Structure formats: structure tokens, C-alpha cells
Amino acid sequence: MLPVPVSWSKRTTQSTFAFIPNRRDPIRRNNATISLAIVAVLSLVLNVRHWLDARHNPLEAPGSELVPESISNTLIRDSHVSHASHLIIVAGHGVWKGCDPQWRGDHEQWSLGPEAKDRGASVRLYFSHIVRGAELAVNDPHAILIFSGGQTLPDSSITEAQSYHRLAHESNVFQTSHSYFERAHTEDYALDSFQNLLFSIARFHEIVGAYPDRVTVIGFAMKEERRFRRLHRAALRWPENKFDYIGLDLPGDSSNAQDGEVLCPKDTRKNGYLPFAQDPYGCHSQLAEKRRRRNPFLRHHPYFSSSPQLVALFEWCPERGEIFPGPLPWSH
Hints:
Layout: H1 6-18, H2 25-54, H3 69-72, E1 86-91, E2 95-96, E3 110-111, H4 114-119, H5 123-139, E4 143-148, H6 160-170, E5 184-187, H7 193-208, E6 214-219, H8 227-235, E7 243-247, H9 254-263, H10 273-278, H11 285-293, H12 303-306, H13 311-314
Parallel strand pairs: 1-4, 1-6, 4-5, 6-7
Antiparallel strand pairs: 2-3
């Protein structure tokens, strides 16, 4: 009789044990399930933490890929601004082109647009707005003062905001021994009063890394309770109890100016309240044309990338003046 082939024995052994269940399989499956659950929980915790951090850091927020690393690497926030929560806005109305601040009250030292010339306001008022803003900022260590106003005049090489900022420091309104006041900044793209408010909030976000808790606007008394408080603030859905307006006018002018802005319908092209009442976001016909006219150097703002949470608001342009319904950083 021939011996049984060795290969047959190996095949038999393999086929026999192939059908014997492995008692370790349930344990392995349980361990795998537990491992996946742990990974899922850790992933959830890390994502929640990332989301919470992103709310206070525009460079880590949703849409932060709009800020290139070559730019974000240049942004180092000073400790003086890291805890700021109060935004103070001084809206520009002209460009100071002088060299000696003692002549700041001379109209010849200013470049003025047609609206300012028609209003006949004294340029001394512009400086009073600067002084009041400086007083508030100096006395509030949590405040950031922003001068707002774009390069609106074709005969000027700088923005309204930059000229206000320069005049403030040349006049030493901050009463500091340093050459500059570290909590005073400029917003250089606003073309009207609505953008003064909206863009200054976005600029605060650039500087601090978070949105302000409170806003104070300084300007003409004729806009108090009118354009800024009733229209612009409402259009942004900014909380009324966290908004203040300080109106400064020449003695005897404020009441007439306030009444005139609301009630005088004779020339609405020179009237700020009625056009914004009909077009709260300033994106149609008359107000849109005014923005084009006040942008002779074709500049555009950077806030699409630095404040991506506001992109939908920037682009909101309803036909019938509906208020923006989407989420906003300050609406929570």
C-alpha cells in the first residue's frame, strides 16, 4: 500500500478548522466598536472647542480660508486691544489737509464734499467730534476709537479717517507722551453713514479678533434718533440697549437740523433720512449712485475676508427694504 500523501493531510487540516468559529471575534468586534466610539467623542469635543475658539478669532472662523497665511502671519494683536469690547466711532465729513493744527478751524485747511459745503457746517465741529471721541476712549480702557471715512474726494490723496487720525495726534487730544495712542485706529472704506457703522464694526473685528459688545457713535446732533439710531442700527439689528449716539452741533442748530432732516421733503437728494428710510442698506438708485460718486479711486473694502461672518449682510440688497433676516454675530 502506498503512503498517504502529506499534502492531503494539510488540506484536510485547513478545511476542517476553517469551519470552526473563532471565539475571539465577538470580543474583537466589541473592542472595535468601543474604539470607534472613543474616536467619535474626541472628534466631537475637538470640533466644539474649535468652533468656540473661532467665534473670537476671525482667522479661525468659518470662511477663514479667505485670509491667506501670508497675511495672517503678519497679524499680531497688541495686549492693549485684546480685551476691548466698546467701539467708539467718529464719522468723517471731510479731509483735513493742513500742517499746523492751530489753523484747524479754517475752512481753507479742509477738502469738503458737496454735501458738507451745502450743509454749511463749521469745520470746528469736526474737531469737536474728534475731541469727544478721544475723551471717551482715554477714560475707557476697554474702548477702541475708530475714525471712519473713505477716500471720497478726488482732490485728496488720503482718506477722511486718516486725516482725522492725523489731526487728533497733531493736536495731542489724547494727552499722551507717546507719538500715538494705541487704541485709536482708522476705517478707510466707508462711503456713507450706514457704512460708517457697519464697516467700523467689521474693522473692530479685524483689530480685536471679536465683535464689540457696545457701540457709541459721535456725529452731528441732526442724526440722533434719526439716521443712526432709527435706521442704521435697526438695519444691522444691533441691540438698542447696547447702542449710544452723542450728537454735537453748534449752539442753536441742533433742533432745526433734526426737524429738517426728517420733515423737509423738498430735496431728498441732499437729505439723509428719507432715502435711507426707503433703502435701509443704501444699495439702490440714489444712495448707490452717491457711493459710486464718492469712490473716485475705485477702492473696495477687505472685510469679506476678515469678517466672513458678515458676508451675507454685506450683500443684502432687498427690493422693498426688508431687514436682513440671517444670523449675525451679535444676535445671539
